[in-house]
Design a protein that fits this description.
It comes from Actinomadura nitritigenes. Pfam families: CMD. This is Carboxymuconolactone decarboxylase family protein. InterPro entries: AhpD-like, AhpD_core, CMD-like. Helix content is 61%, strand content 0%. By secondary structure, it is mainly alpha-helical. The chain contains seven helices and no strands. The termini are far apart. It is globular.
């Protein structure tokens, strides 16, 4: 499939994209560990099948020092030993928050309790917004057929306001 539309080449799309990016920037600047942010964005993107987002988040995580083993095991994190309990709680929230239509209860009380155990209120706020925004970004990418493979790490570095 060929890309359908370049949102950033459109005046309205670029204007909205800039504001959307600024939400992500606020999350990035929060006290939620960057490693957790990277893992959550990668896992949601895998679930949603957004090739461009998987490309971006796996490459950015690798550039930030994430290991190839951990990146490869994100898709099977429940069956892996390389993630901390805090990371596992965040990944569970990412999965349950991404698969809302698949689960009648949404995010389980058990997962929420794990998140509360490992993160403070500011980190939880950032984590909840992160799950929501990465899902929105995935949907944008999938709708317009954005393709993965050509992203170069650091492209978004220094973009603000």
């Amino acid at each position: 499939m060929e890309p359908r539309f370049d949102l950033m080449a459109n005046e309205v799309g670029a204007k909205l994209g800039k504001r959307f990016f600024n939400v992500g920037l606020a999350i990035q600047q929060s006290s939620l560990p960057r490693t957790v942010q990277d893992l959550v964005m990668l896992r949601a993107s895998q679930i949603n099948g957004c090739g461009w987002c998987v490309d971006v988040h796996s490459k950015e995580a690798a550039a930030a020092g994430e290991t190839a083993v951990r990146l490869a095991l994100v898709a099977a994190w429940r069956e892996s030993t390389v993630f901390t309990d805090a990371e596992r709680a965040a990944l569970a929230l990412a999965e349950e928050g991404t698969r809302l239509a698949d689960a009648h209860q949404g995010v389980s009380d058990e997962t929420w309790a794990q998140v509360r155990r490992h993160y403070d209120d500011d980190q939880i706020a950032a984590l909840v917004y992160l799950v929501a925004t990465i899902n929105a970004a995935n949907r944008l990418g999938v709708m317009v057929h954005s393709k993965g493979g050509s992203y170069e790490p650091g492209v978004f570095a220094g973009l603000e306001n």
